[in-house]
Write a structure and sequence with these properties.
With 188 residues, the protein is α+β, with helices and mostly antiparallel strands. It contains three helices and eight strands; from the N terminus they run ααββαββββββ. The radius of gyration is 26 Å and the shape is globular. The relative contact order is 0.22.
Length: 188
């Protein structure tokens, strides 16, 4: 018996008793990528389009230079520590990821519509860092600029996060920093 015929019989047996008919013959013969998707789903293998980022600029950062592991302990404030680290080791261009636990923080969320800057999202409880992503660059005066985004999971499984303004370590935090060489050229 063909796959299409089996699908048709199943549709009659499973749905037919309810007074509803369905024809699965077409779907059984179509490859998965060509089948109509239920609302809210994207077909497997779908890729983003091209030409939709006209403002994108690319900077060739050259070969990676140094890599660091930074361990922080209870009471350390992550952003302050990262800024001190960048100054001491003269990091002008780098990125980092990390994990750990915090018990006090101030996150922010850009309120673009009102123009009021960052909406404060306070945290005053134990939380696990589930993402910590950031960059280190320098401002016009050559001072380090540490930019951090991330999220934390609370004991009930909910998540808070956004732009990080401050975060105090409750147990430990481990951050891996990759420094990049100065940009040799800028590509378009």
């Amino acid at each position: 018996m063909s796959t299409a015929r089996v699908a048709r019989l199943l549709s009659i047996l499973l749905i037919g008793g309810l007074g509803v008919t369905a024809d699965l013959t077409v779907n059984a013969q179509q490859p998965a990528a060509q089948r109509p998707q239920p609302e809210g789903y994207v077909p497997r293998g779908t890729r983003p389009g091209k030409g939709l980022a006209p403002g994108m600029k690319v900077t060739d950062l050259g070969k990676g230079a140094r890599t660091f592991r930074i361990n922080m302990t209870k009471g350390d404030e992550i952003l302050s520590g990262m800024t001190e680290f960048a100054e001491k080791y003269k990091i002008k261009n780098g990125h980092f990821t990390g994990g750990g636990a915090i018990n006090k923080a101030m996150f922010g969320w850009s309120d673009v519509e009102s123009g009021n800057g960052q909406k404060q999202i306070p945290l005053n409880q134990e939380a696990e860092i589930v993402s910590l992503l950031g960059s280190i660059s320098t401002n016009n005066q050559g001072q380090p600029n540490v930019h951090v985004h991330g999220s934390v999971a609370l004991s009930d499984g909910t998540v808070k996060g956004g732009h990080w303004w401050e975060a105090h370590v409750s147990i430990i935090a481990e951050i891996f920093v990759t420094e990049e060489e100065a940009a040799p050229s800028e590509a378009k």
